[in-house]
Amino acid sequence: MTVLRSRLDTASPQFAAGREAMLAKLAEIGAEHEKALAGGGPGYVDRHRSRGKLLARERIELLLDPDSPFLELSPLAAWGSDYPVGASVVTGVGVVEGTECVVVANDPTVRGGATNPWSGKKTLRALEIAEQNRMPLINLVESGGADLPSQKEIFIPGGRLFRDLTRFSAAGIPTLALVFGNSTAGGAYVPGMCDHVVMIRERSKVFLGGPPLVKVATGEESDDESLGGAEMHARVSGLADHLAEDEHDAIRIGRRIVARLNRRKAGPAPAAVAEPAYDAEELLGVVPSDLKSPFDPREVITRVVDGSDLDEFKPGYGTSLVTGWARLHGYPVGLLANAQGVLFSEESQKAAQFIQLANRADTPLVFLHNTTGYMVGRDYEQGGIIKHGSMMINAVSNSRVPHLSVLLGASYGAGHYGMCGRAYDPRFLFAWPSARSAVMGAEQLAGVLSIVARESAAAKGRDYSEEEDAAMREMVRNQIEAESLPLFLSGRVYDDGVIDPRDTRTVLGFCLSAVHNAPVRGTDGFGVFRT
């Protein structure tokens, strides 16, 4: 056993300050999450309940196996936009009849469940997770279709939803639609393109155009039931495969459909699980309140991996990047964790070799981010930092084993790319409340712009105002700081959620279980490594 020994001083002022800062950030994020849980607000929630209907999260709870977890995805989508936090849809991964499924549930208390630009992005991200990990997709449908004032931002990209549903079917990934209310206009194609459709008597309404549109378009008089009612679709059109009596019955039928899918995981089963030797509660104080202060990522690893056991790879070489082998909830993983922030040539070469080894061993990779990027300067440029950084990015780009990323602290510049940021298709990516991500730190970016402005003024023979420079630097610092925060990035669906550090092991374990629904295989097909 190679059990890590924690050197974290939980009695130190630095730990106390970090813990206090983390709890404050968690409280802020919790308050925003409450807005998503509130849906359209008390008035719309009460009106929905008065119609005898369940809320979106209540439907999900009944659908999932009793006392099983639900990993909600992108709960803060649309934060900072003109649309409600949560983006009128709930998405996540849960267990139905022992099978891990991706669930997409419209929230009809928010503008009738209409799809806005952010709910579109959030839904497509959930579908991407279902496709990559070959998990059944269950749609809990009650939506009036596109939010028409936003149609210019929805119509073109929204067509991908229907394309994906048909591709899932062709790939053998089961798709279900449980229709609880309206599924109109473009939304009618969701049940139309799913493998299994459940509708509810006198509740479900599925039509391309409702009675008013039909009247305008054709002059035909019709009513909801004859045009798109559940009984009509079950007995006449054949769109409905199952006719439920009420919402509970629809959920019961949905669970039975999943039970009959006969799904088997394609990846290997986990080994016996050993709990970490150290308390996850201590993760609250690991990251300093000031991200300029370094911290040892081994203090995170030892509280996350099985038995706090890590076999380090090249521990004495490229020491700003910790790499090693471990198990997490019984699954083998390779870990890459930034230690001192900056990535040098040695760290880049070490990472590239380690990623190749993980692919040879068919072992998923976990990236723990805290990097300011690749090192700059004359000596480093002459030493080949570009070609070595490119080698690491090449390895990440072409690796075929599942990647999981967690942003702990800074994740700036090309270092974000080399550590498998969003653009590099990690199967899941989460952030701690302490995380920051941008092209560079706010102070550095403001300084660069100041230097460029000074040089431009000098080249033109103009005076340079120090007062205006200070104002510009302050404005840039504030802008970049705000745009690098987890709330801002999560609101734009650049991650899959902001998580409590204490939940890191649970979240990663759940994700590892999910990725093993698909085959776990590496590759030796990397690009040309420039040496």
Structure description:
With 531 residues, the protein is of the alpha/beta class. The protein has 2 domains: 25-259, 2-enoyl-CoA Hydratase, Chain A, domain 1 (Alpha-Beta Complex), CATH 3.90.226.10; 280-441 and 484-515, Alpha-Beta Complex (2-enoyl-CoA Hydratase, Chain A, domain 1), CATH 3.90.226.10. It is 41% helix and 18% strand. It is built from 19 helices and 17 strands. The protein has helices at residues 13-37, 42-50, 56-63, 117-132, 151-171, 189-193, 211-218, 224-228, 230-237, 247-259, 298-301, 345-360, 378-382, 385-398, 413-418, 442-459, 466-483, 486-491, 504-515, and strands at residues 70-73, 89-96, 99-106, 137-143, 175-184, 196-200, 205-207, 242-244, 311-312, 321-328, 331-338, 342-343, 365-371, 373-374, 403-412, 428-431, 436-438. Strands 1, 2, 3, 4, 5, 6, 7 and 8 form an 8-stranded mixed β-sheet that branches. Strands 9, 10, 11, 13, 15, 16 and 17 form a 7-stranded mixed β-sheet that branches. 49% of the residues are buried.
Strand content: 15-25%
Biggest sheet character: 8 strands, mixed
Shape: globular
Query: Helical residue percent?
Result: 40-55%
Number of DSSP helical runs = 19
CATH superfamily of the largest domain: 2-enoyl-CoA Hydratase, Chain A, domain 1
Q: What's the CATH first level of the largest domain?
A: Alpha Beta
Number of domains: 2
Oligomer designation = single chain
Mean pLDDT level: 93
The CATH architecture name of the largest domain reads Alpha-Beta Complex
> In angstroms, what is the radius of gyration?
25 Å
Low-pLDDT stretches: none
Number of strands: 17
